[in-house]
Predict the structure.
Amino acid sequence: MKAIIIGAGEVGFHIAKLLTLQDNDVVLIDESDAACNRVNEQLDLQTLRGSGASPRLLKTAGIDEAGLLIAVTNSDEINMLACQIAERYSVNTKIARVSNPDYFSMESGLTPKDFGINLLVNPEQLCVAEFVRLLQIPEAREIVEFEDGRVQLVSFRAKQSNPLIGKSLAELDESGLLTDIRFAAISRRGRSNNGNPILNGDRHIIIPRGADALQQGDEVFVIGSALAVEQLLRISGITFNQQLDRVIIVGASPIGIELARVLEENDTNVKLIEEDQAKARLASQMLKHTTVLHGNYLQFRLLEEAGVEGVNGFISVTGDDENDIMACMTAKENGAQRALALVQQPRYLPLLARIPRLDGAVSRHLTVVSNILRLIRRGNIVSVASLHGIDAEVIEIVAGVNAKIVHKELTSFKTKFPENAFIGAVIRRERLIIPTGQSVIQPADRVIVFSMPGAIPVVEDLFAERRS
C-alpha cells in the first residue's frame, strides 16, 4: 500500500516505522531538515521537505496512488487541508490530528467529513480520558479498555504486602482466583529466565506460564472482565476511589484546563498551578469552579499552600518532561496519594518503571499512535493499544470466515500460536468468554490478543479470512 505521512514528529516517526516494517511504500513529509534527516538515518523510506498542504508536493509524493494519508503535524490547518486535498484524489483513508475543538463544535456547523477526514485524533482529549481512568483506579499504572469497558487490561506493581506473591499461577488457578482473568505479562527487574544478568539494571518481560510466580516489585499486566480485574486488584490490596475529593493539576496547558473542566463537572475540588501569570489568568477565566494558583510548582511552599498532603491525585502536565516528573516526585514525598505525569518524549518511557514515587504516566504520542493503529492495521483488526510500560500491544481482532484459528480447540495451536502472544478474551454475540485450552474460536468472534510486536504478523495470519 502507498502511504503518505505528514509530520515527522514522534507520532509520524512511529507510524512510519510500523508501516515500513509491514512492507508498505511510505513517503514522509516534513518542513524540518533535521526531522527528515533523522528519518533517513533510521528508516528505509522516502522523505520530502516542505508543507504537507502543498498540492504540488503531495503530487510528487504520489498522492494519486496512495491508499492512506496520515496528517499529524502540529498545525491543525495543515492537517485538515492535506486531508481535503487527499479526498480530491480519492485516497481511501485520511487521518488528521486536530487539537482545537472549535473547528468541529456545534457552533461551527462543520464535521470532519467536510474535510474528507475518516479519523479525527485529538491528543488532548485522549490524554485527559486516560488521566481520568488512572485516577479512578489508584495504584494502577496503566488501563486499557475494550468493548465499552467490559474487558480491561490493567498494570500494577506487586507490593510486599500482596498475598499473591510467591504463589504460582497454577496454584492461583486451582484456587479459583483466575476465573475470568489472565496474567498477560510480568515486567521484572534483575535476571532473565536463563539466568543472564540484564544490563543497567533494566527490566525483562515474562509471558507467564503456570509455573511462574509473582515477586515483590514486579509490574504485572492482567486482562479480563472488568469485575474480575477489580476483584484481583482488591485482593492485591489496591483500593478504589469512587469519588475524587481533591485533585491538584500543574500546568494550564490545553490538557490541564480540559482535565480540570472534566473533574470539576464531577464535583471534585480542583486546584490548578501555573507558573506563567498570563496563562494563569486565562485559566481562571475559562474554569468555573477550579482555584487557579500562580507560582513555581517545584517549590514546596506553593504545593503546601495548594494542600498537597493527602490529595487524591496530583497530575503534572506542563509539557516539560523533567519538570513534570520532578513535580510528581516532590508531591509524592509530601503526602500526595497518587502522582501522574504527562510524558512527551518516548525515550523516558522505559525509565518510568524505575521511579517508585511516580504512580503512572500518560504518553501523548502513544495515545495518538494507538488510535491511529486501529485503522492502518491490515486484516480484521478493529482496535489496537500500545502499552507504556513494555513494548507490547493489545489488539482486538475479528476471526475471519475459514480463518486458520476457527473451529479447532486452542490446544491444537500450541505449536502454531506465538509464545510471546496469547488470547485474553473472546466476545461472541455480546457474551464475554475468558478462553481455556478447550475453547474454540468461531467465525466473527471478536478476540482480544496480547502480543509482543514480533508476533503480530503471525497472529494476523491465523485470524485472516482465507479465500478459496
Remarks:
- The domain at 244-366 is CATH 3.40.50.720 (Rossmann fold).
- The chain has 14 helices and 22 strands.
- The longest strand covers residues 181-189.
